[in-house]
């Protein structure tokens, strides 16, 4: 099942799962753009480029090609998802 992070201002606000069939092209290949377009029909108020594919590393050439599986609160830099560093409080 494909998962997409919903990213607003560089921060993951939600992760949505869709059926794999929603992102298959005519040749049976997965297309992130088709998944984004499908999610955009569900959430028309959100720009399609705010949906970023994130997934578990099954059958992938290298694990987590986008850094990690995205979680709410993670940061998206346009290439990778990263967990933000905690803010240290000073006494």
Plain-language structure description:
The chain has 91 residues and is α+β, with helices and mostly antiparallel strands. It has one domain. The strands form two sheets. A three-stranded antiparallel β-sheet has the order 2-1-3. A two-stranded antiparallel sheet has the order 4-5. β4 and β5 form a beta hairpin. The chain is globular, with a radius of gyration of 14 Å.
- Tell me how many strands there are: 5
Number of helices: 1
What is the H/E string? EEHEEE
Strand order of the largest sheet: 2-1-3
Total separate domains: 1
Low-confidence stretches: none
Mean pLDDT reading? 89
Q: Into which percentage range does the β-strand content fall?
A: 15-25%
Question: End-to-end span in angstroms?
Answer: 46 Å
Helix coverage percent: 10-25%
Q: Major β-sheet, in short?
A: 3 strands, antiparallel
Q: Mind telling me the C-alpha Rg? A: 14 Å
Report the principal-axis shape. Answer: globular
Structural class: alpha+beta
